[in-house]
Amino acid sequence: MRTDLFALRHIGINENNYQQMFKTVGVENLDQLIYETIPDDIKLKNNLNLPEALSENEYLEHLQELADKNKVFKSYIGLGYNEGLLPSPIKRNILENPGWYTAYTPYQAEIAQGRLEALLNFQTMVCDLTGMELANASLLDESTAAAEAMAMLFDVRSRPQKKENVVKFFVSEEILPQTLSLLQTRATPIGIELVIGNHEEFTFGADFFGALLQYPGKYGQVNDYASFVDNCNQNNIKVAVAADILSLVKLKAPAEFGVDVVVGTTQRFGIPLGYGGPHAAFFATKEAYKRNIPGRIIGVTKDTDGKPALRMALQTREQHIKRDKATSNICTAQVLLAVMAGMYAVYHGPKGLEYIANKVHNTTINTATAIEKLGFKQLNTVYFDTIKIEVKDASALKTIAESKKINFNYINDTTVSISINEATSKKDFEAIAACFAELNKAENTASFTEDVQTVIPSSLQRNTPFLENEVFNSYHSETELMRYIKKLERKDLALNHSMISLGSCTMKLNAASEMLPLSSAQWGNIHPFAPVDQAEGYQILLKRLEDHLSEITGFAATSLQPNSGAQGEYAGLMVIRAYHESRNEAHRNICLIPASAHGTNPASAVMAGMKVVVTKTDDYGNIDVNDLREKAELHKDNLAALMVTYPSTHGVFESSIKEVTQLIHDNGGQVYMDGANMNAQVGLTNPGNIGADVCHLNLHKTFAIPHGGGGPGVGPICVAPQLVPFLPGNPVIKTGGEKAITAISSAPWGSSLVCLISYGYIVMLGEEGLRQSTSIAILNANYIKERLSGKFDVLYTGEKGRAAHEMIIDCRPFKQNGIEVTDIAKRLMDYGFHAPTVSFPVAGTLMIEPTESESLAELDRFCDTMLSIRAEIDEATLDNPNNVLKNSPHTLDMVTNDVWDFPYSRQKAAFPLEHIADNKFWPVVRRVDEAYGDRNLICTCAPIEAYMEA
Ligand SMILES: *Cc1c(COP(=O)(O)O)cnc(C)c1O
């Protein structure tokens, strides 16, 4: 037997565990369990056609060979992507540290105070630099953030005249091309009309609700927007600005012009280019919009003892609540990247950032001077880091530059722009100048002057302080930073502590071998708009990943562009929309969605311009086929799509699925499958096989990309042949189908860098390992189900009584003892566990998904814990809430306090089972007060006194 198989490392169960588990589950073998779980008519007849599994070592060698095919040039392309320097201690202690990257979205605030603080730092940094009052904890990329700004301003528009007539949005021609493309995608379906033009010639018409500016402009010109914004404000036109974060260190904060929203990317704060991502975008706005802001906001509140505590504020799961009334579908964002960018500001502090910005600015001025001295004309009058040069023959310059491994941005035959960045050294400066000297056949006389006069007029210079908070002025030595990062890390429960059995979220192993290549500059340092031939390693890898995902899903082609599952949903629906349009059936706009669907489904459908019709689920949690048929037939003339999750969000393989997909096709619709539960399908069945037309996958669930505390994500869509022509494109680099829809994300292949992880996952597991993973995920779920049986009711099962890869347990009956599902979630912390998914898809329940990566010992510890909690529930009574569940979680502070007046022992509070002492996790705050924080919203690191007084 091969012992170097990755599957043996990835899968936590081994052959020695089988007999015991089969006995508990009540099957002879794995085949029997799968037979009893997955309906026969949807099972795959043949094995997937995938290459044979590589060992971890073979994989790392293979990836190095691919990496060597990437050509790492110095890229001065700009356009929203600039090389930055990732400080080594942040790389080592966060990016390469499972304590950070394997954490989940901080819904369980008491065991997430570390990343919540890191995100609060990020928000504070964004507020300081933009001058705005409120910032969220990241969005997917700059273009998405700009589109979200447009959507928010559209939603809040108010006019004396009828709202229906106020549908125009002005977009400055200075906007980045990928942002314009994404705005087009988002505007059309919801009826926004884009008007693109020069901001100086804008007429401030009464039919405009908003405007978007780029600051500095796409080729570097810095405009004074003061009078434009003034005029807009007077005409009730709301203004959003897409700003470069580093330039804001030198430039007047956009808030000072009176704008309503500022968006941008924090990529250049140390985040690798990564051929497009992942990077954290920011979204900052006025307090007045606090209930409209997309994405998650971290806010300050207090715990049971009145001590400060952090948690996600306000409408943090807004699509879950608002569903088809939601104006944004953002769920997964870019937490890990936001944490890193915020830490970059913590490490450098205001002085460090100023040094970096000055250095970039000075190098830019020196570059301009050197090139002008060679006889070229520089066209930007005011600039920060980007200059625009007139040349006779841009293609000749390109040849010269590429011979020196340099990329400029070639605007047209006679104009180039050059964006200087933090990594541009004096040697680089000389090399840039040398290109122009060679072009003019002149001698390179470039010399660097340290003290140059800024070209930014005082009216546009920043003169307000920033990052004055203590956190940005305390950790500037590596020892201090390392300890600060560790201090935060210790407050958080991640996969390196215990199982995180979040149903629907698939928290599986994120293997070190999958992660290692991300650290390499050969993957990290490639600009998304670099000529494709410089990214051969990426091109091979991404194409293979697409092909493997198409094979796994049973579809014809894949687009890796969407940066999250929700964006995948949106992309899939937009592709369906384009397909209907191409057949002159643009009127098809009804989207059927079962009541149990994830909240992002209806939110995405509305964004795609569709009308949501909710269909019923029956008493067993299955799609009510009769209701569905009725509604499909009723709407058959306008039916666009069905969105269906499979296995269902209730964790069941519905046997009617083929009938359902046929029904939709018969009535002219396309079937969209939400692939969040793909971990129950891979290798055994697939969306193509059940008759779907498109699905998204969550590579950050099923395909091993870590959750990063709430992102990054990758949500590719895989499509049937008729939808291939419409796969999303990019305005700068050709990608997507023949009749590609406009962009879904800023970058042509989305977050390419983390695609390495999923590629590694697939090629190291191979066909057999993938199939085995799915089977064991199903075995583990059914094992837990049987161990808890009799003590917890499982809400839904398949026809033969089996769960799929997850199950819902009902906690509503415990209300009679005064115990809510939240009490169980919090009590789990005392036992060292993160709660399963709470109240989704059914309120008052827990959804448990163990995945294949957990060992039998860990599954047993979890089951023992649940049974122990069950016994505690029995002890609880409705009339006396002073019990171990209601008071949970218990902190070290409580347990070691001289005063202890709880009616149970300290041991029972903190060490209720014997094994806990061996690996105790201490929540650092008591239960957080959600409502208090929402009433007193504070979303930046204000001094503690400020909010305790509030
Ligand atoms: C996670 C999930 C989504 C959304 O994915 P994000 O990456 O968070 O946008 C959609 N549907 C289901 C069922 C999910 O579990």
Give a written overview of the molecule:
The protein has 30 helices and 26 strands. It is of the alpha/beta class and 950 residues long. The protein has 3 domains: 6-54 and 545-767, Aspartate Aminotransferase, domain 2 (3-Layer(aba) Sandwich); 74-101 and 132-295 and 330-461, Type I PLP-dependent aspartate aminotransferase-like (Major domain) (Aspartate Aminotransferase, domain 2); 774-843 and 855-933, no CATH class. Strand 9 and strand 10 form a beta hairpin. Helix 8 packs parallel to helix 9 (177-190), helix 12 crosses helix 14 (426-439) and helix 19 packs parallel to helix 20 (600-607). The protein starts with 5 loop residues before the first helix and ends with a helix. The model has no long low-confidence stretch (mean pLDDT 95). Bound molecules: pyridoxal-5'-phosphate. Pyridoxal-5'-phosphate (PLP) binds at residues 331-332, 504, 564-566, 598, 600, 645, 649, 674, 676, 698, 713, 715. One of its GO terms (cellular component) is glycine cleavage complex. Residues 773-890 form the Glycine dehydrogenase C-terminal domain. It catalyses: N(6)-[(R)-lipoyl]-L-lysyl-[glycine-cleavage complex H protein] + glycine + H(+) = N(6)-[(R)-S(8)-aminomethyldihydrolipoyl]-L-lysyl-[glycine-cleavage complex H protein] + CO2. The modification N6-(pyridoxal phosphate)lysine is found at residue 701.
